[in-house]
Amino acid sequence: MDNRVSPRATGPGPRRRDRHGRGMRGPIAPPQVPLAASRAEVFADLVQDSVERLERRWPQLADVDFLVLEVPRLEGRGAEGWSDEAVPLGGIVPAREGRRARVVVYRRPVEIRTKGRDERAALVHEVVVEQVAELLGLTPETVDPRYGEE
Q1: DSSP sequence for 83-143
Q2: Of 102, 96, 90, 94, which Cα lies nearest the Cα of 64?
Q3: 86-101 per-position pLDDT tens digit
Q4: Cα–Cα distance between 85 and 58 in angstroms, integer?
Q5: Global model pTM greater than 0.85
């Protein structure tokens, strides 16, 4: 007897991810769990925490925009640009006609210089305090009396 098995027809139909047809059952963690937050979101939260801490003492900071950028831009720096040793961690853009003042924190340079979340939070706060002090024309110790203690 010749019992040949005809080949399976390859056509439209459900494709299975594994031999039991289960595949991934869903996301690893629900969105409200910190595991689901990206590094950029966690960093933005650190900046926001620092800003809220300073706004209690300096209400005029409500008129300042706080931004997080990945890395500083080189454009407009000319020949005096920053060297490899002096990559800025933050910067300010003064207020102009119709535009609010801005404080910028650069995420990647800060992350590279820190090892853990607590160290990163302390450095973010220092950068925000330094930039706010420069914007307001004050010393960092005046902006935050605990500056440099952490």
Answers
A1: -GGG--SEEEE--BTTB-EEEEEEHHHHHHT--SHHHHHHHHHHHHHHHHHHHHT--HHHH
A2: 102
A3: 789 999 999 999 999 9
A4: 32
A5: no
